Each structure stands twice: as C-alpha cells, then as structure tokens.
C-alpha cells in the first residue's frame, strides 16, 4: 500500500507526462501546419497582340418588333395574350367574331356550286352540238346535205364553246371568292407572326376593330443586334466581320461581330450608326437582355501591338498600387507592377513583369512572401 505522500508524487508524474504529450502533439500539429503548402493556379507571362480600344455606349435592338394588326373587321371575342406573356410563332393572341364571315363563306360555297352546275350544262350542250355538227358533215355529198344547216351548226358550236369558256371563268371566280372567304375566316384568329413577348395590348373584349387596327405590340428578345453611334474619326478600325468586345448587365462580357456601317452621318454629332451581331452564347432568353438595353462596345482605335499582359485574376489591389505573386523555386514572392488598359480579361503590363515569369492567378489572396506553394493543374 502506498501512503498519501507517495500517491501525490505518482499523480504529479502522470500529470506531467500527459501535459508533455499534449505539448508535443500541439508542437507536431503546428509544425505540420507550418509546413503545409498553399495550393494555387498559375500562368506564364506572355506577349499577346493587344488592340487599344475606346468604350462607346450602344443599345440592344430587336430585329423583330412591332404591332400585330387586325386583317379583317369584327368585334373582339377573345384575348389570349396578356402583357409580358411569351408566345411562339403562330400562337393565337386574339379572336374576332366570325358569324358574318361564316355566312359569307357559306354564300361563296353556294355560288361555287351554282357555277359548277352551269359549267356542266354548258359542256353538255357543247358536246351535243359537236355531235350534230359531226353528223351534218357526214351528209356532205348526199342529197340530204344542206350547206346552210352546216353553217348554222358551226356557228352554234362556236357559241356553246364560248359559253363553256365563260362558265369555266365563272367557276374560277367562285373558287377565288371562296378562298378569300376562307382566308378572312382564318384571319379572325389573330396569330403571332414570330416568337416573342407581348409588350402592349391595345384592345379589350367587345372592341370593334377595322382592318389595320392595332391588337398587340410584340418584341422578340431572342433576336437582337447591337447598335452604336460611332464618331466618324474612329471608324478606321470598324470593318465588317471584325470581332469586338461588348459589356452589359452585371459583369457580362461577350464578343460581337461588326455587321454593317450605315452610310448615313448625323450632322449634329458627326457619328455613323454601326450594327453588331452579338455572340450571346446562351445569354439570351433568360431575362437578362431586353430591347433598348444599354451595352458598352469596346471599339478598336489602333492597330494590334504585341505587349506583355497578365490575367486580371493575378492582380491584387493595394491602395493605389498593384502587385502580383511571382512563383520562384516553389515559393511565392510579391512583385509590384504597373498596369495599363484592360484588354478582355487581361491587363497590359507597363512594368514589373517580363515574359516567361510565372504568377499565381487563383489562391493568391492569402499568399505571403516566401510561402511555399503547390501548383494545381488548371
């Protein structure tokens, strides 16, 4: 049995051993943490062809935008398109009263049947006269032959032949009238001429509309171009087919191709209208774009030059200065740089970097000078 004094000594030894183990473990963790390398993405500094650009404010314009009008007269009996509704090409947006049009079609059907009947009768009479003329000609040279009767039958045949032509024209006219009645009946259902969104509704139920009256206004936000008024002095680099950068919405950047320069100059502003075809890459159709929406076009104002550039993600802002982390011997070192204008997702480097150097692009926010790094694959 151990007395109380000996138990105290044993307990003290055990406590010291536990504490020592704890300190050793903490030191080991600290050592491991200190030796852990930061995982980063990098890029090599290169020279790229850079074109100096100037921002111009433009706008999106819809290639299909306007009023859908009534093609026949009638009272509005149904409206199927409210403001803001997206419709497809051929969808019915409104209907007109068709009672008068249906009666008009029935009348045209009856007229066509009447004309067809008259044509059949005229053809039958022509066939009968033709047979009589044939028999009269067979009597030629006999005592029963009469030259006067032959002339009468020839005249009669010509008369009925002309009458058949007249009845055929009557049938054609009746068919055309029936077709017009069918078209008017179809026009009573007013359809969207293209896919888009209803921007405005001009009629209500019960309104009577004439031919040409407005029913709705539509805009196709899936078929857009960019229009910008560019100073005449900056048109040197504007050539059809050339790509430029456009910026819109919330940090949206896309390319656009120059389609045409309108040969008409505004004498007050000395600008010309230029149209661009945007490469939207899935941006359209999700509510981001709209007709007349503002867009910034970076137009080229100089020839392309080979310059040192760095990715925007590699640049860190510190007050009024900029720096990057250059990777040397698997360690990160801070390097102050001077940057110029932006070119797409890159900055022109005026000083501080040279081609071939490696800089951190992602994971560089928490780097410290001299810290070991582990480069990750892109």
What's the structural blueprint in terms of helices and strands?
Blueprint: H1 4-35, E1 38-44, E2 46-50, E3 53-62, E4 65-69, E5 74-79, E6 86-87, E7 92-96, H2 99-138, H3 147-187, E8 189-191, E9 196-201, E10 208-209, E11 214-219, E12 224-231, E13 243-248, E14 252-266, E15 271-279, E16 294-300, E17 305-311, E18 316-318, E19 321-328, E20 331-343, E21 346-351, E22 358-362, E23 373-375
Helix pairs in contact: 2-3
Number of helices: 3
N-C termini distance? 69 Å
Radius of gyration of CA atoms, rounded to a whole number: 44 Å
Give me the count of strands. 23
- Judging by the overall fold, what is the CATH architecture of the largest domain? Beta Barrel
Structural class: alpha+beta
Query: What characteristic shape results from the CA principal axes?
Result: elongated
Identify low-pLDDT runs.
Answer: none
Q: Helicity range of the residues?
A: 25-40%
């Amino acid at each position: 049995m151990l007395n109380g004094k000996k138990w105290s000594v044993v307990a003290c030894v055990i406590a010291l051993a536990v504490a020592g183990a704890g300190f050793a473990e903490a030191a080991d963790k600290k050592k491991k943490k200190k030796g852990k390398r930061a995982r980063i993405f990098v890029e090599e500094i290169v020279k790229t062809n850079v074109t100096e650009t100037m921002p111009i404010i433009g706008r999106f314009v819809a290639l299909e935008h306007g009023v859908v009008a009534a093609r026949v007269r009638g009272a509005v009996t149904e409206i199927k398109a409210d403001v803001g509704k997206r419709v497809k090409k051929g969808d019915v947006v409104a209907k007109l009263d068709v009672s008068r049009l249906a009666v008009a079609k029935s009348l045209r059907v009856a007229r066509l049947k009447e004309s067809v009947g008259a044509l059949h009768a005229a053809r039958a009479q022509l066939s009968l006269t033709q047979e009589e003329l044939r028999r009269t000609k067979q009597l030629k040279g006999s005592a029963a032959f009469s030259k006067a009767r032959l002339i009468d039958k020839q005249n009669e045949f010509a008369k009925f032949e002309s009458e058949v032509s007249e009845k055929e024209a009557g049938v054609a006219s009746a068919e055309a009238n029936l077709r017009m009645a069918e078209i008017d009946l179809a026009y009573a259902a007013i359809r969207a001429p293209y896919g888009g969104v209803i921007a405005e509704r001009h009629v209500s139920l019960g309104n009577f509309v004439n031919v040409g009256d407005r029913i709705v206004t539509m805009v196709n936000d899936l078929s857009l171009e960019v229009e910008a008024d560019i100073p005449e002095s900056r048109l040197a680099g504007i050539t059809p087919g050339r790509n430029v950068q456009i910026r819109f919405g919330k940090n949206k950047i896309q390319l656009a191709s120059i389609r045409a320069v309108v040969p008409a100059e505004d004498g007050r502003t000395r600008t010309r209208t230029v149209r661009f075809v945007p490469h939207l890459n899935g941006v359209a159709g999700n509510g981001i774009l709209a007709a007349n929406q503002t867009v910034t076009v970076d137009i080229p104002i100089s020839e392309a030059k080979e310059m040192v550039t760095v990715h925007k993600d590699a640049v860190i802002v510190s007050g009024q200065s900029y720096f990057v982390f250059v990777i040397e011997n698997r360690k990160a070192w801070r390097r102050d740089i001077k940057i110029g204008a932006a070119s797409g997702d890159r900055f022109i480097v005026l000083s501080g970097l040279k081609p071939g150097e490696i800089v951190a692009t992602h994971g560089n926010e928490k780097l410290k000078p001299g810290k070991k790094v582990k480069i990750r694959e892109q």
